[in-house]
Amino acid sequence: MDAHAAALAAGEVAPAPAACNESAPSVIDHLEAALADSAPAISSDIQQAIGVLALAASWRQTASYVECPPSAEFLDNYAHATLLGPPDDVPMSDVSGQNGVAVGLVLLGPGVVYPPHQHPADEVYVPLQRIEWTHERHGMPAAVAPGDLIHHVPWQPHSMRVGARPALLLYIWSGDVVTPSRFCA
Predict the structure, then answer these.
(1) Is 154 helix (H, G, I), strand (E, B) or coil?
(2) Distance CA 153, CA 37 (A)
(3) Which CATH superfamily is domain 2-10+26-178 in?
(4) 39-76, pLDDT tens digit by residue?
(5) pTM (2 decimals)?
(6) Phi/psi zone of residue 11: left (φ > 0), alpha (ψ -120 to 50 degrees), beta?
(7) Measured between alpha carbons, how far is 127 from 148 in angstroms, rounded to an integer?
């Protein structure tokens, strides 16, 4: 977490450019419910700040997920928004070295299973609702409380499952932040 904080404090990370949300993924219909459900996990000031950012964000879906979704309902229940750092479509060669930082949100609809996936970025997640998490490709899911920190080293397979209510998660990526996630075979 020190590298994340140092890059932010040094001003080495630029805000992600705003983009038009004309074709926002349908999971955005769950955003207000997820924000409302986050109240017990975080202070009202932080909840309000995340709400403002989430409502103004450009929500997207990982291109490889769109090309080959893991299930028929996955794309209706998944989106992410980069709030700080390079946008999703910038080649790593355009980012200084392998030391990028990206901060954003992931929104998952009720009952969704986000299958095992991996990426070259080091990742810290903070779920704002209770979710189930797996830290390896074939591991057993374990409950994670709202506000708990979850850390994945680069290329570590992980997955998550959401209960009956939508879930909103804050993420911080460092290192190679522009190579997208991919599902594990």
Answers:
(1) coil
(2) 29
(3) Jelly Rolls (2.60.120.10)
(4) 666 788 888 888 899 989 999 998 889 999 999 899 99
(5) 0.82
(6) left
(7) 7
